[in-house]
TrEMBL record, chain A:
<feature type="transmembrane region" description="Helical">
    <location>
        <begin position="159"/>
        <end position="182"/>
    </location>
</feature>
<dbReference type="Pfam" id="PF00528">
    <property type="entry name" value="BPD_transp_1"/>
</dbReference>
<dbReference type="GO" id="GO:0005886">
    <property type="term" value="C:plasma membrane"/>
</dbReference>
<dbReference type="InterPro" id="IPR050809">
    <property type="entry name" value="UgpAE/MalFG_permease"/>
</dbReference>
<comment type="similarity">
    <text>Belongs to the binding-protein-dependent transport system permease family.</text>
</comment>
<keyword id="KW-0813">Transport</keyword>
<keyword id="KW-0812">Transmembrane</keyword>
<keyword id="KW-1003">Cell membrane</keyword>
<keyword id="KW-0472">Membrane</keyword>
UniProtKB/TrEMBL annotation, chain B:
<keyword id="KW-0732">Signal</keyword>
<feature type="signal peptide">
    <location>
        <begin position="1"/>
        <end position="23"/>
    </location>
</feature>
<dbReference type="InterPro" id="IPR050490">
    <property type="entry name" value="Bact_solute-bd_prot1"/>
</dbReference>
<protein>
    <submittedName>
        <fullName>Extracellular solute-binding protein family 1</fullName>
    </submittedName>
</protein>
Length: 297, 434
């Protein structure tokens, strides 16, 4: 009994540093955002400049957020973004990981590093770099495309979303490749050996052995990509000055950021953030429910 | 009364979460410096050249040291930082605040009323209308710094080569634009994502979008001058006579460098932008007045304009105010700011003999006389609201959508007016019905 107690105590002791920070910088801010989202500001005095007070208003801010077409459009934007981003990201990362892990792969160390390097570049810097490549008049890409007779515009309202998909893929594909490789490496090589002896083709090995065993990593990469897509922020923010097609409510995070720090409506911003969190939760847990079941095999 | 006790409980919870910010909201900053005591004031700013003026002050005033923090310019994050600092109860003593943003900080109870510290005695040191930009009710909340009277920069060499005159009216401007297209160049850009330029063009045409009357805000954006300007630019864009691209961004600088864009109806502080970004075009530019809607008139407008504001809650408002007045009126300080390209001085009568009052080869000689004239021709009744950034963003979103779908610019303005009124009401501000 006393040993068990001591074990429990040391367990909590090891957890404590994490828990303190987790509560202080994760749980409390979320609770505070939810709390804040239930208030609205009332202003008094001539021209409304006499002062302000907070009044409890139940879900008024949520009604405001969800009846604001710009905000609802921003949710659709990230959902469409996720719809494109998730398959592109997962298929690309999976293909690269399988190539690097195939028996005949050459220069594995070099390619693994090369794929991962962009992940070391912060999203803001990546967006600035790609911004230069996207802007007509500066980017050499336009001349390149024109020389083969193609006319493109990377920052038009029709293409800007794909241009952002490209940046995000460039940033994160290498990271997901590493995660997938780690999982593939954990597979007992005897399995491949046995399959080959039984006459399985490389495609069959991929389809029937590698993919099922890499499933947990694939599921994780997908969930991360879903959540990351919904939280899209730095890339459109940085591209906004050069790409006129990006509005200040382009993504939900951008809308909440502007609501909080330019329009000073922290309460509405909090409500928007909570709505986004709810959508992200439904989608990621929904995905896990549908596809995550095989994890425990 | 369960709801009442719940509310009380929530308030208490809020008070427990935010003790410092609530405490800081009450204080008005009444500290007094002891003789011989050395104090340090923080100053958030992004204007090039202000560091030199601050260094000069620090040398001359060892007991009142200004600590300058370079922050991003207001709309690119500087204001977000200030609002966050206000919310956290830890704002700087002084900051750069553009005229259009003063009401927004007033709405958050963020600015010190300078009349409490004797600022009213300094009224005659500043240009009247710029003083008024910081005056609300009985208070004055900002020390005027600079404005941006507008004129027309043009590539004299290219126009001459193509046998064209700088346009004196907006009708001529359209004709000239068509002729410039024959030389594979554009007359100028119209930015779909920078409502400030559009606002100033409407200002010149005689629009007065915002005002105050009887304790309420008034909004009138959907009016005849504004519709005229909106239709005009939409036509030019449709006929491919102007480039629809963001200005003061890389692609625009490139076009200006290459002579693909030959003219800019811009503010006085734009001279530093052209000089800094297209140094090889030196001597090829000239400056003349804005094109006019009616021949023979001389109406100008203002684009930009800044003040030095004191945030509430500072410990030494008297010293901060003394510095702010010195920074914006002392001839040496003003000259240092002029060198950085801060705009047109808000201090009365400093143009003569200042660094603006001289030849500049880049713009083919004396060009600031044009801006001195323009400064006098600005409609000084223009006012801003507490939600200018929101109104700008709504205009931008409207223009951006219209660019994509081919929608009409006049509809954008009409929608923007409705959004402005709704936005102000949503903030709890009293708005007069239009």
């Amino acid at each position: 009994m006393s040993i068990k107690n001591r074990q429990a105590r040391s367990g909590w002791g090891f957890l404590a540093p994490f828990l303190v920070l987790f509560v202080a910088f994760f749980i409390l801010p979320i609770l505070y955002a939810i709390y804040q989202s239930l208030f609205t500001v009332k202003r008094t005095g001539e021209l409304g400049l006499g002062g302000q007070e907070l009044s409890f208003s139940w879900f008024d801010n949520y009604t405001t957020a969800l009846s604001d077409t710009a905000f609802v459009d921003s949710l659709w934007t990230v959902l469409i973004f996720a719809l494109i981003q998730v398959p592109v990201m997962v298929l690309l990362a999976l293909t690269l990981a399988l190539l690097l892990e195939s028996a005949s792969a050459r220069g594995v160390g070099f390619f693994r590093t090369a794929y991962f390097l962009p992940h070391g570049v912060p999203g803001v810097i990546a967006s600035i770099l790609w911004g230069f490549l996207y802007v007509p008049g500066i980017s050499p890409l336009y001349n390149l495309f024109e020389s083969v007779g193609l006319s493109v515009d990377f920052i038009s309202p029709d293409t800007i979303l794909l241009s952002i998909v490209n940046i995000v893929t460039w940033e994160f594909a290498g990271y997901n490749v590493l995660v997938l490789i780690a999982q593939l490496k954990a597979v007992n090589p005897n399995l491949f050996e046995a399959a080959r002896v039984d006459g399985a083709s490389p495609w069959r090995i991929i389809w029937h052995i590698k993919l099922p065993l890499a499933r947990p990593a694939i599921v994780m990469a997908t969930v991360f990509t879903i959540v990351g897509s919904l939280q899209l922020f730095a890339e459109p923010l940085v591209l906004r000055p050069v790409a006129a097609s990006i509005t200040y409510t382009y993504t939900p995070n951008l809308a909440a950021y502007n609501e909080a720090f330019f329009e000073n409506n922290y309460q509405l911003a909090a409500a928007q953030a909570v709505v986004l969190a709810a959508v992200a939760m439904v989608l990621s847990f929904g995905f896990l429910r549908i596809f995550g079941r095989g994890d425990k095999q | 009364m369960p709801s009442l006790s719940r509310r009380t409980a929530l308030r208490l919870a809020a008070a427990a979460l935010l003790p410092t910010s609530l405490a800081a909201c009450g204080g008005g900053g009444s500290g007094r410096r002891q003789p011989g005591e050395t104090i340090e004031l923080t100053f958030w700013n992004w204007v090039p050249g202000v560091d030199k003026a601050v260094n000069l002050w620090n040398k001359q005033n060892p007991e009142v040291q200004i600590r300058l923090s370079n922050i991003p310019s207001g709309p690119s994050g500087g204001y977000a930082k200030m609002f966050a600092a206000l919310k956290a109860g830890d704002p700087p003593d002084l900051a750069q605040v553009e005229y259009y943003q003063i009401p927004a900080f007033l709405m958050e109870q963020g600015l010190e009323d300078l009349t409490q510290h004797g600022f009213a005695d300094h009224k005659d040191k500043f240009v009247d209308w710029q003083w008024d930009q910081g005056a609300f009710g009985d208070g004055v909340y900002a020390v005027p710094q600079a404005s941006g009277p507008m004129a027309m920069y043009y590539r004299a060499d290219l126009l001459e080569q193509w046998n064209l005159e700088p346009p004196a009216t907006w009708a001529e401007f359209e004709e000239t634009a068509a002729k410039i297209r024959e030389h594979d160049a554009y007359i100028c850009s119209f930015p779909p994502n920078d409502a400030a330029m559009f606002t100033s063009l409407c200002w010149q045409a005689g629009a007065r979008w915002f005002g105050t009357s009887g304790g309420e805000w008034t909004v009138d954006m959907d009016n005849e001058p504004t519709r005229k300007v909106a239709e005009y630019w939409q036509r030019l864009i449709k006929k491919d006579l102007v480039l629809a691209q963001p200005m003061m961004a890389n692609a625009w600088y490139k076009a200006v460098q290459d002579g693909k864009e030959v003219l800019w109806v811009g503010p006085q502080w734009g001279d530093a932008l052209i000089k800094g970004n297209a140094p090889k075009t030196s001597g090829k530019w000239k400056v003349t007045g804005m094109p006019q809607w009616k021949e023979g008139e001389f109406a100008s407008a203002n684009w930009g304009g800044s003040s030095t504001a004191l945030f509430k809650g500072g410990d030494f408002p008297a010293e901060a105010l003394e510095f702010a007045i010195w920074l914006n009126t002392d001839p040496t300080a003003v000259d240092l700011l002029i060198e950085g390209g801060y705009g047109w001085p808000a201090a009365a009568g400093v143009f003569k003999g200042s660094k603006l009052d001289r030849d500049d080869e880049f713009f083919g000689g004396r060009y600031n006389d044009v801006f001195a004239e323009a400064d006098k021709a600005v409609d000084t009744k223009w006012r801003w609201t507490p939600i200018t950034l929101e109104i700008n963003e709504n205009l931008n979103a409207g223009f951006q959508a219209a660019f994509g779908s081919g929608g009409s610019f006049t509809d954008v303005v009409a929608t923007a007016e409705k959004q402005a009124i709704a936005g102000m009401k949503a903030k709890g501000l009293p708005v007069a019905s239009p």
